[in-house]
Amino acid sequence: MSKKKEIVKNYLVPIFIILAVFGCCTFFLLENIPHSADDLDVNYSSKKIIINNDLLLTDVVGKNISEDNLKVGTTGYVEFEVSSKLDEKVKYEVVLTKENASPEIPLEYVKVYLTDENDNPLLDSTSGKVLSYFDLKVADSNLNGKLLYSGYLKDKGSKKFKLRMWTADTYELTATTSIFSAKVDINVK
To answer: Which tens digits make up the pLDDT trace of 49-61?
Structure first.
């Protein structure tokens, strides 16, 4: 009996430990395979979005902007789909990068509302309010851009998005038209 315990102790336990360490290392390496932008396909209705201060909207109205009621150049609406070309998991970020505009709408009045294809909100807001561009977090993949969404695609999967933008109804109207211009990018992490 002690001979069996000695065999288990001296041979099987070390083999089990080696296999466990090897399995963990393999999982970690497979989980962190570097990916590139070529691993994703992105289909945009438009990559650029421009709004102005000619029409101020409440959050309730802004959340319902669609292709049917879009005021081009005044309110913004973009649909896009991100698809993976790979069977493995690919991490990505949806980033909104401000472009230079003059005169520019102050960032705290630029409302940003991202949903999935079924209009389920995807931007985190603990207060339940629609976030402004100013409130968004800086993206890890682009320090000049703001993070709209971070997620994974696997098994050649895809995800559809709708981005709506407008000028907040709390903005004070002026005789001068101000604009906000930005582009939507998908960055692989």
So the answer is: 999 999 999 999 9
CA angle 92, 163, 50 (to 5 degrees): 110
> Quick one: CA dihedral 180, 183, 184, 185, positive or negative?
negative
List the one residue out of 168, 99, 162, 182 whose CA is nearest residue 132.
Answer: 168
Q: Residue 179: in which H helix or E strand, if any?
A: strand 179-188
Helix (H) or strand (E) holding 164: strand 158-168
Residue 67 in 3-state DSSP? coil
CA distance 32 to 88: 11
- How confident is the model over 167-185, as pLDDT tens digits? 999 999 888 999 999 999 9
- DSSP 8-state secondary structure symbol assigned to residue 90: E
